[in-house]
Specification:
This protein is an alpha+beta fold and about 375 residues long. It contains 10 helices and 12 strands. Helices cover about 50% and strands about 20% of the residues. Strand 7 and strand 8 form a beta hairpin. The radius of gyration is 25 Å and the shape is elongated.
Length: about 375
C-alpha cells in the first residue's frame, strides 16, 4: 500500500507542476497571437482529450511524467523543429510560432520556467499566510557523547549566537557554517544562562546515508536542535518572505549545479524519478503543508533546470533566439538540427545517469537489509 500511495502522490504532484509549466508557454503564446494546436499532459497513447473553441486539443496521455505544448509551425512537441512560415497557408502564417519575432519566441520559451517560479512563490505565500514562518532556533537540545561539541564544552540549552563572527539567527545558518568548515576550528559565541561565552569546536567529516540511499560527506559537531519558533506574518510580509524563499532556493540550486560542473560535488548526488517519488511520499505522510513545500521546491528545480542553456530545454531555445538576434537572420536548419540532437543526447544522458544512481542506491539499500 505504501508503494501505491507513493506512486499516486508522485504522479499527482508531477502532473500539477508540469501543467503549470506548460500553461506558462500556452498563455504567453496565446498573448502573442500564436495558435496552440496541442496541450498535452503526459506522453504516449492518449487517454482522453477534447478540443476547445480556439482549436487547441487538450489531451491526457498514458505516461504522466511530463508534457508539451505544440504550436502552429512546430514539427514536434519540443519546438525543436519548425516549418518555414512561407510554406503555410496565408490564413495561418501570422499565427505560427516561427513567424513571430525573436523576442516573442524567447518570451514563449521563458514563460514555462517563470510560471514554475511564480507557482512556488504562490505556494509559499499561502503557507506563510496560513501557518506563519517556522524556523529552528539555534538552541542546543542535545549533545552527542564523545562528540567534538562535548569535548569543546557545549551543553544542552546553549544558544549559539554566532560562528566565526557570523550571526546565526536560525539553525540553518549554523548548519551552513559547519558544513563549509569541516576539519577547521570554529569560534562559537554562545549564551548560557544569560551569560555570553566563547568556545572553539572543530567539526569532523563523516559519511552519512540519506532516506533514498545516497551517501554524503558531511561535517558535524555532534549537537541536535529541536526548538521551533513560528512567526505570524501579515499578507505583505508573507509576500516578501515568499519572494525571499524562492530567491534563496534558486541560489542554492544554481550553486549545486555549479559545483557539479566544476567537480566540487559528485554527479552521483543527482536524484532521479525514484528518489523524487520516495521523498514525495514521505512528505505527503507528514502532512499537506510539507507536501506543498516539496511541490514548491520541485517546481523551482524544474524552472531553473529548464533555463539551463541546453538545446531541447527552454534555455536552449532562448540561447538559439539570442544567437539569431546576434546573427541578424534565422539560423540555418542544419545548425539547429545539429544543436538539438546534441541537446537531446545530453538530456537523455542526464536522465539515464540520475535514474541509474537511484537504481544503484536502491540496490545498496536492499543488500544492506
Amino acid at each position: 500500500m505504501d508503494t501505491v500511495f507513493t506512486i499516486t502522490t508522485f504522479v499527482l504532484v508531477i502532473t500539477v507542476i508540469v501543467f503549470i509549466h506548460e500553461l506558462g508557454h500556452y498563455m504567453v503564446a496565446r498573448y502573442n497571437g500564436v495558435q496552440v494546436d496541442v496541450f498535452s499532459i503526459g506522453f504516449g497513447p492518449e487517454l482522453f482529450a477534447w478540443v476547445d473553441k480556439r482549436g487547441t486539443r487538450w489531451r491526457f496521455a498514458v505516461i504522466l511524467l511530463g508534457g508539451y505544448v505544440k504550436m502552429l509551425g512546430d514539427l514536434d512537441g519540443a519546438s525543436a523543429r519548425s516549418v518555414d512560415p512561407k510554406t503555410l497557408p496565408a490564413n495561418q502564417r501570422s499565427r505560427s510560432l516561427p513567424s513571430k519575432s525573436v523576442g516573442q519566441r524567447a518570451a514563449v520559451a521563458v514563460a514555462g520556467p517563470v510560471y514554475n517560479l511564480l507557482f512556488a512563490m504562490v505556494v509559499f505565500f499561502g503557507l506563510f499566510a496560513i501557518y506563519g514562518k517556522s524556523s529552528v532556533i539555534p538552541k542546543v537540545s542535545e549533545v552527542v557523547a564523545a562528540s567534538p561539541a562535548e569535548k569543546a564544552g557545549l551543553l544542552a540549552g546553549d544558544m549559539i549566537r554566532s560562528i566565526n563572527g557570523v550571526e546565526t539567527a536560525e539553525f540553518s545558518k549554523v548548519l551552513e557554517l559547519i558544513q563549509a568548515n569541516g576539519g577547521k576550528p570554529l569560534a562559537l559565541q554562545i549564551v548560557r544562562q544569560e551569560k555570553e561565552m566563547e568556545l572553539s569546536v572543530t567539526p569532523v567529516v563523516v559519511t552519512t546515508t540519506d532516506m533514498i540511499g545516497r551517501t554524503h560527506e558531511t561535517a558535524q559537531i555532534g549537537v541536535r536542535f529541536g526548538e521551533v519558533a513560528v512567526t505570524k506574518l501579515n499578507p505583505l510580509e508573507s509576500f516578501w518572505e515568499s519572494g525571499k524563499e524562492v530567491t534563496v532556493i534558486t541560489g542554492q540550486i544554481l550553486v549545486a549545479v555549479g559545483d557539479m560542473v566544476t567537480g566540487n560535488k559528485s554527479p552521483k548526488e543527482m536524484a532521479g524519478l525514484i528518489s523524487i517519488a520516495k521523498i514525495t511520499g514521505a512528505a505527503a505522510k507528514i502532512g499537506i503543508a510539507e507536501l506543498l513545500r516539496f511541490m514548491a521546491l520541485i517546481s523551482i528545480n524544474l524552472g531553473i533546470v529548464n533555463l539551463l542553456p541546453i538545446p531541447v530545454l527552454d534555455g536552449g531555445h532562448i540561447l538559439l533566439c539570442g544567437l539569431e538576434k546576434l546573427r541578424g537572420k534565422p539560423l540555418t536548419e542544419r545548425f539547429q538540427n545539429a544543436v538539438m540532437v546534441t541537446g537531446l543526447v545530453i538530456v537523455i544522458g542526464l536522465m539515464i545517469f540520475s535514474n541509474g544512481n537511484d537504481i544503484v542506491n536502491s540496490l545498496k539499500g536492499l543488500m544492506a537489509q
